[in-house]
Design brief:
By secondary structure, this protein is mainly α. It is built from 8 helices and 2 strands; from the N terminus they run ααααββαααα. It has a two-stranded antiparallel sheet with strand order 1-2. The protein is globular, with a radius of gyration of 19 Å. The chain starts with a helix and ends with a helix.
């Protein structure tokens, strides 16, 4: 086999592997995010049509959970500061879905080929979860702050009010709510809302 053909095959195989997991350049501007990654907006609109969760709520939650990094993972834990003990949790991907919750989503939706590191699947998962929180807990689909608290603490934790004793989490949830509103106004200003 000639050298050019070998290089072409290697390049083709390499291009089939993994996705573009890097974050968009400007995470503070929703219009810049969707201009750079139109597939994000398409995925979020599809999830909004299916589950009723607005694009700006999804965007603010993804920003908080993974900063739009498709293969994001939680940090490693260390014993005595040096001995690796595994990751802090099984959270993975754009939505930082935990293994058990992801498995429940796959089972309930029948999406056997879904992957947490694909934006279409991650936004559908997020829509499914938040729709469930709206139905079971009465949280408005427009309320990014409360949706985030239920997303982070789980529905049981939210209903028990576990977040109330976590000032840091309340601050984070308020930032998600504020970012959601900012993203909503930005998307409206560039005709994407």
């Amino acid at each position: 086999m000639n050298r050019f053909l070998k290089l072409a095959i290697v390049a083709l195989v390499a291009s089939c592997g993994g996705g573009n997991y890097k974050a968009p350049r400007n995470l503070d501007n929703a219009c810049a995010i969707v201009a750079e990654r139109p597939a994000y907006l398409n995925a979020m609109r599809k999830a909004e049509r299916r589950w009723g969760i607005p694009v700006h709520v999804q965007m603010a939650t993804i920003h908080q959970e993974s900063k739009f990094i498709g293969n994001a993972r939680t940090p490693h834990r260390y014993l005595l500061g040096v001995i690796p003990m595994g990751r802090q949790s099984s959270a993975y991907g754009y939505s930082q879905a935990l293994d058990g919750t992801w498995e429940e989503y796959v089972e309930k939706t029948g999406k056997r080929r879904a992957r947490r590191d694909r934006i279409d699947d991650a936004t559908d998962f997020m829509g499914w979860y938040m729709d469930g929180s709206a139905r079971r807990l009465g949280i408005s689909k427009l309320d990014a702050t409360s949706q985030y608290l239920a997303y982070h603490e789980g529905r049981g934790g939210f209903s028990r009010g576990s977040y109330r004793s976590k000032g840091w989490l309340m601050n984070v949830a308020n930032k998600v709510g504020s970012r959601s509103e900012t993203y909503r106004m930005q998307l409206a200003s560039c005709g994407r809302g």
